[in-house]
Amino acid sequence: MSSTTIHENNHHNGSHIPKKPKLSSTFITPSEIESEFGHHDAAVARINNGSFGCCPASILAAQRRWQLQYLRQPDHFYFNDLQSGILQSRTLIKDLVNADHVNEISIVDNATTAAAIVLQHTAWNFREGKFQKGDVVLMLHYAYGAVKKSMEAYVTRAGGNVVEVPLPFPVNSNDEIVSEFRKALERGKSNGNRVRLAVIDHVTSMPCVVIPVKELIQICREEGVDQVFVDAAHSIGCTDVDMKEIGADFYTSNLHKWFFCPPSIAFLYTRRNLKGTDPGSDLHHPVVSHEYGNGLAVESAWIGTRDYSAQLVVPAAVEFVNRFEGGIEGIKKRNHEAVVEMGEMLAKAWGTRLGSPPHMCASMVMVGLPACLGIGSDSDALKLRTHLRDAFGVEVPIYYRSPREGEVGVVTGYARISHQVYNKVDDYYKFRDAVNQLVQNGFTCVVLSSD
């Protein structure tokens, strides 16, 4: 694949794509939504969109068309369709996230791949002596587990020092997060070390909290942090995403979680520097293929023979969200309002509380579970989740929060509930009733531990 044919400067520059596609004058109906997600298991209250997302039938059909187009004549597809199709997806993503230029957007499999790209780049800076051994990479304690493993695989092995920002949970305000972040920065800069990279979640996965990224990035700029990478696996379609406002050097988000694409597709934004240099010129995809050295966007667009169809259906996803009143902005607003309402309903039913105030939630909310369930470990949380799935048909992640010193009888288990367009009130009532039944039966997690 020639890099000149896929680069944004070719005649397929995406200029024919409207920046703000027209919203439908006839909005999608409840029965149409039900039909779009008719492949979901009707026996399960699926209130865990946050983990794997969802994909409506119309977008699955678009994906199938791309797959058949490839299988019908792979050579023609490779030389004539794939490159322009990926460029069209990149152009739409650029507009969705308000990036300056299409070349700032690369498409990769998922946020985990994006994290590997950024942290591999950091590791090479240590290896090549651009960073000194002991220099610091900062990350939140609630960083996604795979990102923590990437830190171990790349940064720590290369001689970097990883400093974690401890975050309170439950959390009551952004000020608590900002305060802990400032303290961790000071620890990182002690002994004359430089903080080379800060990895900040936009929406933490577990427990889920919307992080004040713009404020933290501003602090990083003031404190001399070299670069900032925002791991926003959940953000696009879930909370506000604007590259110019956020101001990160690197930013990634999945489109298969909250933007209705099939797995797996994510974008990695790399900000152009003041000289306008190609932002992806010194970053590389972990899978090295023929396009190595032609810039990250080009490298990522061809990593060998594989199914690229998930990366080609972004136009269909944009078309789908624009069938809803207000488009993706309307979906985000309604999901947020609904998940907060359902979270408060559950907390009231169980005599507990939310894990954060509503303004620190997006389309997911942490809800305290009754303390009498006896959730005493991560293992208990996982076993309870399995029990809810197998015995009650409820799919929801459970988080274990260890009690602080001196705390007795506190809530140690929190459920992370999601709301997406296919969810109904009955899904949350089913969860409420399942937990109430467990409480009434005198159930505790000790029963599961003895199995």
Automatic annotation (TrEMBL):
InterPro entries the record matches: Aminotrans_V_dom (IPR000192), PyrdxlP-dep_Trfase (IPR015424), PyrdxlP-dep_Trfase_major (IPR015421)
Keyword vocabulary terms for this entry: Pyridoxal phosphate
Gene Ontology MF terms in the entry: carbon-sulfur lyase activity
Residue ranges constituting the Aminotransferase class V domain according to the UniProt record: 82-359
UniProt superkingdom: Eukaryota
Chain positions covered by the region annotation Disordered: 1-23
Ranges of Basic residues composition bias in the record: 13-22
Protein name: Aminotransferase class V domain-containing protein
Protein species of origin: Glycine max (Soybean)
Designated gene of the protein: LOC100786129
